Amino acid sequence: MSYFEEETYTDTSFDVTVWKKIFRYMKPLKKHFLIGLMAVVMLAFLDVAYPLLNRFAIDGIIEEDRIDRLPIFIGLFGVYVVLIVTMIYTFIIHAGRIQVELAYAIRKDAFHKLQELPFVYYDRTPVGWIMARMTSDSRNLSDILSWGLIDLSWGLLMMVGITIVMFVVNAKLAAITLSVLPLLIYTSIYFRKRILKAFREIRKQNSKITGAFNEGIGGAKTTKTLVLEESNYKEFDRLTSRMKSHSIRAAVFAGLYFPTILFIASIATALVFYFGGLEVTTNELFTVGLLYVFVSYVGQFFEPVMMLATILARFQQAQASAERVLSLIEQDVDITDRPVVIERYGTFDKPLKENWEPLGGDVTFDNVTFKYKKGETVLENFNLEVTRGQSVALVGHTGAGKSTIVNLVCRFYEPTDGQILIDGKPMQDRSIAWLHDKLGYVLQAPHLFSGTIRDNIRYGKLDATDEDVIDAAKMVEADAFIRTFEHGYDTQVGEGGARLSVGQKQLISFARALLADPRILILDEATSSVDTQTEKVIQRAIETVMEGRTTFVIAHRLSTIVNADKILVLEHGKIMEEGTHEALIKQRGLYYKLYTNQFQ
Amino acid sequence: MKRLRQFLKWMKGHLYLYVAAVVILFVLQYFRTLTPLFIQHIVDAIFAGDPDASSLPGFIRYFVEGDTLRQSLLLVAAFSIAFTVIRALLFFLHRVLIATFAERVAYGLRNTIYNKLQNLSFSYHTQADTGDLIQRSTTDVDTFRMFLAEMLIEVMRLIFLVSFAIYQMARMNVPLTAITLATSPIVFTSALIYFNFVKKVFKRVEESEARMTTTLQENVTGIRVVKAFANENHEIDKFEATSSDYRKESFSLLKLMAVFWSATDFVIFIQYALTASFGVYFTLTGQMNPGQFIAFLTFVGMIVWPLRQLGRIIGEFGKTTVALDRIDEIVTQKDEHEDDHGGTPSIEGSVEFDDVTFQFDDDPKPLLKNVSFKVNAGDTIAIVGKTGSGKSTLINLMVRLLENQGGRILFDGNDIKSINKKHLRQHVGIILQEPFLYSKSIYDNIGIMDKNADKKKVHNAASVARIHEDILSFEAGYDTVVGERGVTLSGGQKQRVAIARMLLDNKPVLIFDDSLSAVDTETDIQIRRALNHYWQNTTVFIITHRIVTAKAANKIIVLDQGEIIEEGTHESLLAKDGLYAELWDIQSSIAYDFQKRGQRSEDT
Q1: Which of B111, B216, B518 sits opposite A527 (nearest CB)?
Q2: Which of A65, A289, A418, B49 could form a disulfide with A59 if both were Cys (CB 3.0 to 4.6 A apart)?
Q3: Which of B227, B242, B220 is nearest to A348 (CA)?
Q4: Residues B157 and B29 reside in one and the same domain
């Protein structure tokens, strides 16, 4: 649970290995990074130089009464303007490049990994978790490594530059002025931690409120029928009240930070006023212009302090983001092809199809045991022989092991012990891509992709012609309803197929499977209730799709079960009964009991 | 005016906080424009030995005038600290006032919206888009809160700052003030125009990001399909296309930003150069003092940077009015209880439909036509029919989730329209096909109907609904939290929890809306047996697809296209050989087939 907790904030210390890995992504962007850095160095330099430019006007022109020097001043200022504007443009462009390219590269790697990861990974990883890694975490990371890093160097360089110039000009006054530095650092650290914590609390409350709205809307009908409006509202009010007081508390705290920095800065300014003022009157070399430079520097020195504190805090968060992104990118693919297999069959993104032999469809489970990592045994010494073209119905309660068998056939899981043979050869001797190329999976809670109906059917075989698509639809009796739509096959199905009914989605998924023309077909029947007429159409479609293929059905429909060549009655990962319908009825065992119950 | 009222509506009762904060802000910004005058005072008054040359206002000069140069400097230094302490305190007070104000307004808004959402009619909810409603309740509220707490205040802060800076400069030198304002219109309007324009680009970036996220989401949720059809490479290409499109759009926005920031920076630094050059000239020609020149160098910054910022914020103002409009669209909707003046007559369990008709406003076809039937208290009635035959509508009418237009629905002789909605729903229970469980523990989900129920009662209810064993098999048992953050229950488990929940409350009328559809047949039978015993005196309506479930009812009603086409007991309906008999045949043909085959296999 805690592994997937959305925001686990620990005050982790700086982790070099994490950043090293992330900086690998920066390598191709070296050019942008260097140019950006150069621009920032220049900018910091120009910021430090600005008061000196004005000092020239004060000391060099006004105090010495040299109006003839005014054109020089204007000329210098002109150069200054051109330089600073060029640098600002350069730095935005290059920091922007880094931001955009970095996020892109991370997303690319992560997505690639997602396609490679075995099905088990998706079983135990919430969708939201994956989405967050791919979107907000990668964004955080690229933001901080572009703008954050550049702002950080800007601020630090400027502070260092100011310190150096101050010491060069007047070491004594510089030391006096900067004596407030320890106080400044301490205060910033103190506030940074607490403000961060306060805002985390607010975010937590906020997501609770969003959750409550979600529930209030999603559960509206239930709430109405149970007349729970009042009690829900009371609970909601508790949440919003807490949010209110937390937010105000956080604002009070954050509201203290700026005035405190302001106060520390005013001490530094006062020190310059007094000691600098005395210096002007006693020290020939310390001019009014230099006093102005010191006063300006105090202001400039304190300006980036709050920004730096924020960036440092964000680096800490970014490290957490980096860890999470890396945990996805570096996730072990525990089901992989062996090197020998890859050599012959290729990888999933570079398959060597010319070496692929056809798949017949004989499937053998040879003493297969399957355990979850936690140790829970789902299948034990499981044996099964299926010859090509046969259909196998898997019957049993939830948790009996039906899905496990199917996932093993698909090689979404691999046996802990024993082996599975396809056409007499161990599964591991061929590549995963080879198997999946000839495998079909039909879920009756079907997943459609947004796009047109045509796209969705064609998903079964990407290079299928329009005629192939329509033929497939006709065979499962989907053509008729598709043609009733205004745009026919070009109708947009909406996200997740939202614009179609359950029955329609099922028929499209059958057409998709038919087009793929798999040798082994997995059929996961849903219990969802559709009306009796649709039911009949679906039943016929199932028969069409199953014809001539090795089929494993997680069955709920009696007709599917009765027509299967082999029925497996499972309980606790063991085959309790096995045989044809007639044989099992004759046994008067578990199967008989299960299915006579329904019709008494 | 209408807009203003729209804004003020939510601030009622808290506005005084805001006014106080703005007054403080006014003082604060005045104080801020005094700070460059300290160095002016030092240079022109102290160094030059001319107290009258100080541009500091009299009330400050009073504090900082010393006898010796050293004393004068010390006084300025000390006063500037004291002055900052006052500024810091005022600033803190200002922030607290603003935060309190904004949070109170947001609190009120959230509660109002939530309460409204709960009380909006069922038809509203069926048509509304959940994601959109949540967006309005959260993001839009936050937009408004940010507007109050940050943007509006920022605008005033900038306006005060610019105005006071102009005032302070004008006190020193009017011509140079005019020169310092020379490029202001350019800075301000270019920011305004740019940020209005860039909104469109922003939108394009957001859209391309949304496309990418959708592709990703669909891939992850459909990974089984992706893998089964071995389409990983196709998916990688698909994602790559959206991802690089997003990259392209983002970068084009960044390029625009680079141009804008550097171009306005150019104008701003030209302004600095203008003020400095003319300042030098004016000082040399004796029109102002060196200290004033130095102060001007700071005041330029108090004009140009804020103006750019101002243009940017005003450019973003539109967002807030859009957000408020979207919120208003919810809160101005009519509450379903607003016009409900019904009474609270006793409901015992006899129900009558008298010529009931219903149709949606935008639907030309009625969903129910002239439906009439009578049910005695304690009877069990089954309602069967195909999808779309009007079964759900009929139930929704019985608890006034929808309102019948024609005819009357009577509970113990009282017209349903004369019965208070909440009272009605408290007595007529519905167990939905897809019941909603709240994200609390399972125990609380069951106990929700009777907050005083003890453990024994809750466990007993769970046992009757055949969910007790399932609950115990969870790691945390009854404390298992349901929903997104916790365990996902199967459809059948949810249905059984919903039944257990209903068992805690005695209702004279109960409606099962296909509420055991996801439970396997065996368990279905067990539960029904247990419930028959439990609810002997309750009037029970069973809506179902499973004809076997309907079989035992006292009366079966067959609906087709909104009309009752058959009515009677199982036997009488079979004899009629109508739709009921047909449905029965379809569903049991498999059974007959099954038995036949079974027979045959027994024969062999």
Answers
A1: B518
A2: A289
A3: B227
A4: yes
Residues B96 and B126 in one domain: yes
ipTM value: 0.83
Contact A431, A341 (CB under 8 A): yes
What pTM value is reported for the model? 0.81
Residues whose CB falls within 8 Å of the CB of residue B581, separated by 6 or more in sequence, listed in order: B573, B574
Q: Judge whether B494 lies within some domain.
A: no
Q: What is the CATH number of the domain that holds B109?
A: 1.20.1560.10
**For testing the chain B interface, which of A115, A336, A409, A431 should be mutated: the one with the most B CBs within 10 Å?**
A115
| β-pair partners for A441 | A522
Has residue A527 got a pLDDT over 60? no
Kindly report the number of other CB atoms within 10 A of residue B477's CB atom.
12
Q: Indicate if B566 and B534 belong to the same structural domain.
A: yes
Residues A145 and A95 sit within 8 Å (Cβ to Cβ): no
Distance CA(B500)–CA(B437), nearest Å, equals: 12
Tell me the nearest-neighbour CA distance from B464 into chain A, angstroms: 20
Q: What is the mean pLDDT of residues B540-546?
A: 84
Residues of A in contact with B450 (CB under 8 A): none
Q: Do A221 and B134 touch (CB under 8 A)?
A: no
Tell me whether residue B423 is in a domain: yes
Q: What is the CATH number assigned to the segment(s) A439-516?
A: 3.40.50.300
Please say whether the beta carbons of A447 and B222 come within 8 A: yes
Q: B420 is written with which tokens? A: 């208070």
- Count structural domains, chain B: 3
Candidate CATH numbers 1.20.1560.10, 1.20.1250.20, 3.30.559.30, 1.10.10.10; the one for domain A1-169+315-334? 1.20.1560.10
> Per DSSP, which regions of B222-367 are E strands?
351-358
Residue of B nearest to A85 (CA): B262
d(CA B412, CA A485): 47
**DSSP SS3 for B385:** strand
CA distance B259 to chain A (A): 7
8 Å CB contact of B73 and A273: yes
The arrangement of strands across the sheet holding B414-415 comes to B368-375, B351-358, B406-411, B414-415
Report the alpha-carbon distance of residue A435 to residue A409 in Å, rounded: 9
Q: Contact A258/B80, CB-based, under 8 Å?
A: no
Which residues in chain A have Cβ-Cβ distances shorter than 8 Å to B99? Answer: 247-248, 251-252, 255
Closest CA to B165 of B55, B300, B287, B41: B300
Same domain, B193 and B121: no
Cα dist. A19→A4, A132, A316, A317 in Å? 22, 20, 11, 13
- Find chain B residues with C-beta within 8 A of A592's C-beta: 598
For residue A395, the cross-strand partners are A569
Shortest Cα distance, chain A CAs vs residue B310, angstroms: 20
| Residue range A195-225, pLDDT digits in tens | 888 888 888 888 888 888 888 888 888 888 8
| Inside any domain, residue B401 | yes
User: Based on the domain organization, do B114 and B242 belong to the same domain?
Assistant: no
Q: CA nearest B384: which of B530, B570, B532, B539? A: B570
Q: Are residues B15 and B122 in the same domain?
A: yes
Query: Do B491 and A527 lie within an 8 Å CB cutoff?
Result: yes
What would the pLDDT profile of A362-409 be if each residue is shown by its tens digit? Answer: 999 999 998 876 667 788 888 889 999 999 998 877 667 888 888 888
Candidates B547, B521, B530; CA nearest to A594 is B521
- B24 within a domain of the structure (yes/no): yes
- Domain limits for position B14: 8-171+319-334
Tokens of B395: 């139930």
Tokens of A33: 């990074």
